[in-house]
Amino acid sequence: MTESSFIDQSKLHFNEGDIVFRKGEMAQQMYIVLGGKIRLYVGHEPVGDWSEELTKGDFFGEGSLLEPIPRSNTAVALEDSDVIAISRGTFLRMIRQNPEVSVKMMQRLAQRNRELGAKVDSEGSRSTKSRSTNPSSSLVSVISGKKYTILAHGALVGRFDPNTGIHPDIDLTDEDPQLSVSRRHARILCEHNRYFLVEEHGVANGTYIKGERLPPGDARELKPGDRVGFGMVVLFFEKS
């Protein structure tokens, strides 16, 4: 079988919001991302904490090829995505025909283990600090006073999408009766304890920092006390 015919026969398409698999499911397939974006959520539903976002060339679900264990997370397509599904039998044939495949996978697994170890150490240190200083940053609504915590790896800001069932990390649905906030409105990125706001493409009603509209795709650093607007919803950025 040629590489192109293998890809054609093994290719799967997921629309935005589709669940690739749920935590706890038993399976014997892994996936390689051809295009789009897949997010791995910690729980059984696509809401709350998540561990990774995967794009072209990344693979996930490989644990099912090594031993029959339940899925450890829930995989969801954040946008229209194409993946290759590889079964255990196909994977074993690939290794026999091209041992380099297994070497590359082991290298990637080793890299993930290092990243996971570093993340655990970092979160453990941050958790210890949090108990004494409460260092988490957040957005605070001007109208309701509700505080929206920004996760350590950043946050997607928007409204709940009833069509896909996806909740953004910071869900402004209750703050936005005018529906001025897009479902995928903006992202807050965190790097070395600095926070940056980036508007998603296709947003109609704009994203603002201190009254100045942010151009789509332009990352702007947030400073403590900054007034941030998503459509008609206004919040203040707090950094501990």
Layout of helices and strands:
Blueprint: H1 3-10, E1 11-14, E2 19-21, E3 29-35, E4 38-41, E5 50-54, E6 59-60, H2 63-66, E7 74-77, E8 81-87, H3 88-97, H4 100-133, E9 138-141, E10 147-149, E11 155-158, E12 170-171, E13 186-191, E14 194-199, E15 207-209, E16 212-213, E17 220-221, E18 227-230, E19 233-238
Parallel strand pairs: 11-12
Antiparallel strand pairs: 1-8, 2-7, 3-6, 3-8, 4-5, 4-7, 9-10, 9-19, 11-13, 13-14, 14-17, 15-16, 15-18, 18-19
Outline the structure in words.
The chain is α+β, with helices and mostly antiparallel strands. It has two domains: 3-97, Jelly Rolls, CATH 2.60.120; 138-238, Tumour Suppressor Smad4. Helix content is 23%, strand content 32%. The strands form four sheets. The protein has a six-stranded antiparallel β-sheet with strand order 10-9-19-18-15-16, with no helix packed on it. It has a five-stranded mixed β-sheet with strand order 12-11-13-14-17, with no helix packed on it. The chain has a four-stranded antiparallel β-sheet with strand order 1-8-3-6. A hairpin with an 8-residue loop joins strand 4 (38-41) and strand 5. The protein starts with a helix and ends with a strand. The model is unreliable at 130-134 (pLDDT under 50).
Keywords summarizing the entry:
240 residues; Jelly Rolls; Tumour Suppressor Smad4; 2 domains; 5-stranded mixed beta sheet; 4 helices; 19 strands; elongated
Shape call: elongated
Q: Can you give the mean pLDDT? A: 82
What is the CATH fold-level name of the largest domain?
A: Tumour Suppressor Smad4
**Total tally of structural domains:** 2
Mind telling me which CATH architecture of the largest domain this is?
A: Sandwich
Q: Count of DSSP helices?
A: 4
* Low-pLDDT regions: 130-134
Helix content: 10-25%
Radius of gyration: 20 Å
Strand content bin: 25-35%
